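Q: Entry one of two.
A:
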Amino acid sequence: MGKDDVENSGTIKPASLICTPVKAYKTLAKEEPAMRTHAVREIALLRNPKTMAEALRTLQRVEWMDAINKEMSSFVDKEVYEVRKLPIGQKLIPTKLVLKIKLASDGSIEKYKARCVVAGYRQTAGLDYDPEGVYSPMAEPTTLRLVLAISSALKLNIDHLDIKTAFLNGEIPENEQFLCSPPPGFRVPDGISWLIKKGLYGAHQSGSIWAKTFRTWMHMNYPQCVEAGNEQCVYVMRESEELAPINLDELRGLKIERNEKIIIMIMITDDMLIAYSDNARDLVDSFEKKLNNSFEATPRSQIEHYMGMHVLHDQDKGILTLDARRHVYGFISHMGLDADSDVGVSTPLDPHEVYSKMDSPPEIDVKLRDKVWQAHGKLMHLAMWARPDLVHSVSVLGRCVHNPSEKLWNAYSRIAKYLVKT
């Protein structure tokens, strides 16, 4: 542990409570090969346990149990399920607890999170869900960047809040309700099942049901907030000094009128961003209160991170910066490199190499393919949201991910080195 791991007060920084033991186990694995298996298992437990049994074996067992109890209590409060006898011959859809340590933008531990997730791939189309009713609108990364850019140019306040257990607020139509088993670790008598009545994470229809629920709520309670063109996730309200609505179809340039009230809201699944002028603060406060009366939300706060990106906003200077440092460091670590000690390179791809399907082996290496798919998915997220310098590389490598070679895997390692340098 170094001086950077300690606060000025002498206490250990929250981020180091996990990072330091992980580094110690990595060192142990390198110096003592016989202990590698033990070190790998302990590192996994320090990060995200796979099951409740694993969580109870960690040093954070109390925190994990609190998170699990909180999740299951929300099931009861929101009447997510109804206990039913299992019909003879009926197969249950399994559920499981997904445990994750959620980090803040600075890498410190924000909270221990538990989610009860259903195995949606076991649902039957036409029986457990309507295949025509699974679409859920999602704002494009360009839309989010545009909203942030406009908000910064107009010197608007930019706040953020989350809807807690958002999917559990959506009512599943009676003809789509399905039977499932409680997650492992929760004992129920034989022949007893859960009839799911609310949107459950992992179910095909949950995202669509929640999107429709929130959209209907907005139309009923805030008809003055108009959807921005074809963007169903963006709502805009503009009122003149006389409190009359301003025609959004009239081009006015990048400016607001004298004493005009403006609010721009963007909802991506359960993460809401609210940009507003100073004179509209009372309206936003009222909106937050009404939102909490219908759906429980986290307290509204000035934006610091959104959709995995770190956001720095200086309203007075009209400056706003975005970066995906957490995802960058995560990818570097995923590829087995250290951002502080490994040597980087200046280009994401080797200019002397050509990547094509001709490099693919005769038979698919499933383990290698899974590794490549994970790495490629992480890079796609980075390229779309915050690192356009990776777009070409992702496009080139994506042509060969169906049957990757070691040469292709080495290309992902090179990109990690490029991220180290940049």
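Q: Entry two of two.
A:
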Amino acid sequence: MIRNGELPMSEVKRVGRKFWWIIPLTVAASLLIAMVLTVVLPKKYTSKTVVLVDQPTVSSDIVKPVVNEASNQRLASMQEEILSRTRLQPIVEKFNLYPDQRGNAHMEDLILSLRDVIKVEPLQSMPGTTDRTNQLPGFQVSVTFDDPQTAQRICSEITTMFMEQNARDMDEKGTSTTKFIAQHLDEAKKKLDDEDGKLADFKRRYTGSLPDQAQTNLSLLNGMNSQLDASTQALTRAQQDKSFNESLLSTQLESWKMSKSGAGNPETLEQQLNALQDLLSQLESRYTPEHPDVIKAKSQIEELKKQLDAGPRPSFSTPRANATEPQQIQQLRARIQQDDLSIAELTKRQTQIQNQTNILQARLQMSPAVEQEFKELTRNHQTALDFYNDLLRKNDQSTMAQDLNHQQQGEHFNVLDPPSLPSEPSFPKKLVFAGGGLAFGLALGVGIIYLLAALDKAMHTELDVEYCLKLPVLVAVPVLDRMGKVHGRGQSIDKTLGLASTHS
């Protein structure tokens, strides 16, 4: 009897001794049913294959892959595409699957049935390794069908579809990426050419006014100013020399004419002496005492002084001598002509220097505006150049990555184990059903025994009496067998009940 939902150990032993045969019976029956089910139920065979994701043989630092999507994401997208209706319907028709259901079921139902028997499971990384890039080591394709050969063929077909789809995706993405970059590369090349043309035209228009030529222009301007000052000074000296030579020529001509008219006249000699002394004073103010003109003037003064001291002498000049000018006067005329040439040359030179100075000053005045425009053109040109170089580098990377994919040197799928031909059914499995039958039979037997104990309302011990009658047991008379041995307290229940009734 169960008291307050509890089954005492003594009751467990009593029920166990009484109904022990139930557990072997239920276990044997459950095991028999399980074995019958393994024979009766339709058998399913599972074909499996393992596909590894081989990483590129060339480091990504050397050749960056075109596809940066994680392999687990690509596997999920490929799985959805391969298990779609358009991809599974040819398999149903190719292998003539579910022939008994063709007349009663739609193609959608058949495709759903086929999709249910195909399992794609990613492989887990080895314990202790970390994958920071979400890259899968591989995946397993399993197909469960009622025929082992059909299961193997379907598994092989699905695996081939994964291989082809991956190669096609890699090639399409590589081709589209390369085409996209090449298109933008052409546009960047045109833009760079335009910027080159603008920059070259700007340099032609502002030659000499560019920012990098400002310091040169400043240096040239300082040099031109120095040359202008030197030219001005040289022109002033040339003009002074001309004036001096003209004055000297005038004096020499006057002296020469006076000497022609009367060489022995003391007054004329005095006038010549005074003129030469004035000329000497002018020469000494301009030249050093060692200058030839100064020395010559001094010698002429000495000569005139000697003539004045010696007295007047008759003149014996010839007409030819009177007609010819002295060499000194001819030299002065030549000097004056040379001064005129020098003045003309210096004036021309001064005009040229002034024009160049004006040009340089105009360039320096334009430098801020030119520099601002030049910086903008240079910045745009550098931006276009950097963008073009970046696209060119990416185009080379994309081309190399595409070549790697064509040579099977990039990331690709590799079948580690070909689809297996199952020799034993994956369902039902005898060991699994046998274990399940044993467990179920044992649980069923225990449940039946517990149910029997719960339904048993008989009183077998004095505790049962107290629980049912709510009266204490005063004494229990043991049951003696013929040998005089005392049996358990449970066998004296009749005597106990009698005593309990008398007490009441």
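A: Comment on entry two: Strands lie at 45-54, 118-122, 138-145, 412-417. Confidence is low (pLDDT under 50) at residues 313-322, 486-504.
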